[in-house]
Each structure stands twice: as structure tokens, then as C-alpha cells.
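Hey, I was hoping to borrow your eyes for a little while. A protein chain has come my way and I'm curious about its shape. Take your time with it, there's no hurry, and the full record follows here:
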Amino acid sequence: MLCGESLYTKCGHDRAQHPYIVQKMREVARFMIKVKELSKSVKTLEQLCVPQNFVLAITACKEVSSYNADSNLFKTPSLALKIGYSLKKACQISLGQSLMSGDTVTERNVKNFIKLIDSHWRTNISSKALNTLQQARWNKGNTITLTEDVMALQKHLRKQESKEKLRKNANTADWKVLAETLLCQIILFNRRREGEASKLLLTVYEKRNVKPPNQDVVKSLTKLEQQLCSELTRLEIRGKRGKKVPVLLTKDMLTPNDVLNGSREKIGLTKDNPYVFAKVERSTHIRGSDCLRKYAAVCGAKDPKSLISTQLRKQVATLCQIMNLKDNELDQLAKFMGHDIRVHREYYRLSENTIQLAKVSKLLLSLEKGSEVYKGRSLEEIQFSTDGMDTSSRVLKRDIDG
């Protein structure tokens, strides 16, 4: 209960975090049910957090996460990792309670239990769970979203006529359709994380900056860039880990948004719901992932499963490699995406299968012709014919000019 109270104190003010709190409580509860099955003497989490019961905690964690000793793999490795974090957090809470109450016995036991977690939990649980997660990613299909699929989804979203229907007759069905389609359009256009766009607050939208941009900066821009500054509206929302991230809205997005906000009272939306894309029946927001999945399935896309916010963000990062952006341009993109440049280069700019097959294979095959043939040339300048290429031995039978 103290663990749940601590989580609620930290993020209970955000209703969107309530399911997360419930999830963490259920994880610890499942773990403790397994502990009680293995030992009749341990009844509470506090009784478990003593050095004598560390092996019991390891065993219970393995069983609740379906650990296979023969393959050294977990069926649910993420659960094993989460239990480790929650168990250490519970120990820290218990340590704080013992310090405040002057209970030196509990203090000593919990401190020693934390030392065991720091020294032995990784060997017995964490390293094996991480190894399971890494192996699951090997040879997994990892293609980026096709541009034509994005265009197909955008075209389908624009066909929805709920905006005019809602103006003429405010009703819940049309309000929901307009909210879902507009949310999808914002995620698609900005390549925003779906959770960030879904939590757009009504106060943030209403207090958006409508002042014209700085004229000194505008003069240094191209004619197209100056036009875009006047056409688009920028607002800032809360992103991952509390970071400030921007969202750009076109004029085609502002009008439907105003229609949505103007119809809230007419459809009976509760006043205490702070979200722009609110759920009519509850004081929470519409999930962007559900909206994308719903409309991707009916828009005629070749690969509807790839039309999710994560893949859309990765599409932008991968295309940056093709465009070869300058460092300052890459910095601006990374800030807009909501992460620093190091994360962008190490994680979001991972080489796709197509890039590796095309670029790296060209280099490897070229090396078999000898260094003198390609001396002083870049990968773009290297050209040869694949006719007659022996793929088994990787030997080119023709000359580079042939």
C-alpha cells in the first residue's frame, strides 16, 4: 500500500498515469501471490525484504515470469525486470519508514537486502531477462513506413465529413469521428508520439502563441520558409520525461479544432475534462494508437501495421540519412522530435535492411576486386553490373566497366 501511495503522490495528479499505477500494483501483487505459494511463513512484502528470503524472491520472480532453465530464457522478460525495480523501490520505502520510527532491526535487514539486490539480482534475473529481450529482436522484420501508405491514410482522413455535420447538428458520434481523425492528422504531420499528441490540453491550445514571428529572423529565411511561418501555428506541449516539445498545426487543423472545442457543451462533455481530444463518457483522453490502428486498417494501405507513431518517427530519421542533412539542420530536427542529438544518432538513425543491403554489400563486393580498382572513389561513384555474379562465393566475374 505504501508503494502505491508513493506512486500516486508522484504522478497521481495526471489521470493518464492512473493505469500505470494500477499496472505497477498488479505486478507486485502477482509477485507476492507467488511468494506466498512458495512459502507459508512469508505473508507480507516487508517480511520478504530480509536477507534470509532473498533466494525466495529470486525463485518467485523466475516462476511468475515463466523462466525456462534449459534455454535460460524468460517467457515474459519485461515482467522480471519490472519486479526488480519495484522490489528495490519497496525496500527503499521500508528503509525510510524504519529510519523514521527508529526500528534498527528492520533498517539493518532492508539495507542488507538492498545490497543483495545490487550485487546478485543482475546475475540471476536482469542479465537473463535482457538477453531474452535482445534475442527476440534478432532477425525481426524492421521495415519503415512507406510514404504511399502515409499518403493513403491522409487522403482517407480528409474524406471524413464530420466537421460540417457537427456544425449543423452537434452530436456525440460526429464529435468522436472528428476528434479521432484530427488527432491522427496531427500525429501524422508532426510525427509526434501518440501519447504526447493525445494529451493536448485545452488550456494549452487556447493560450497558443498567435503573435507574428520575429521579423529579423524572418528576413533571413527563404520565400517558401517565410510563407510557411505565416501559414502554420506552433504550440508547445509536454513530451516524454516532462520535456517541452513543439506541435505544428496547419490552417486545415485549426478550423476542425475550433469546431470541436465549440461543441463540447452541446454534446454533454464534462467540464472537468482538460483534454482537447476528450472521451465523452469519461474524464480522460482518446488514445492516438487506437485511432491510428482503426483508420490504418480501412485506408487501403499496403502495410497498415506500420502506420504507428514509432514507425512514423523512425521513417523521418531514416530518410535523414538519404537526405544527408547538415549538423545544424539535424539538431533542429532532433529538438523537434523531442530527444537530443546523441539519442537521434544512436537509436533513431539505425541503418535499415535496405540501406545495409544496398550500401554495405556494394562495399564488400567491391573489395573483392582489389583496392586499386576503387582507389579514391566514394560509394556513390562505385558502379558495376550484377549480371553473372556468383552469390555463393561473392565473386564478380565482370570488370567494373563491363
Summary: The chain has three domains: 2-137, 147-348, 351-402. Residues 351-402 form one domain.
